[in-house]
Amino acid sequence: MTSLNRNIRLRFRYVLLIVFVIVLGILSRKASFIPLIIGDVLYAAMMFLCVKLLFIRVNFWIIALISLLICFLIELSQLYNAVWINDIRNTTLGALILGRGFLWSDIVAYTIGTIICILFFQFTRIFSDKVD
């Protein structure tokens, strides 16, 4: 199998997994019995998968650092409260992507989500580039 075909198959798997994690994340916000931190853990997992989708050949540890940095920067951006960005945050999509308010617990949740992704990819072979 050519490298291009392997990349396409891997990217397709990542897209499916991203969609699955997004659905789980939205459902976690709709079900009152699921702790809010689960949605934040899933957000970090989605960010990890999105970064990996873009940089398919980059090591998982580098992907983890990049995705965690993005999550942290988005969380820190919530300390900035200009009218224009708050208007974006007040939309459904804006709130899902940018959040609404800074919480230290979100930082912890993003770290946990990233660690879960690292462990998942370390101990599974389903996303290996050697899969035929």
TrEMBL record:
Pfam families: DUF2809. InterPro entries: DUF2809 (IPR021257). Signal peptide: none annotated. The keyword GTP-binding does not apply. The keyword Secreted does not apply. Keywords: Membrane, Transmembrane, Transmembrane helix. The chain crosses the membrane at residues 12-28, 34-55, 60-81, 101-121. This is DUF2809 domain-containing protein.
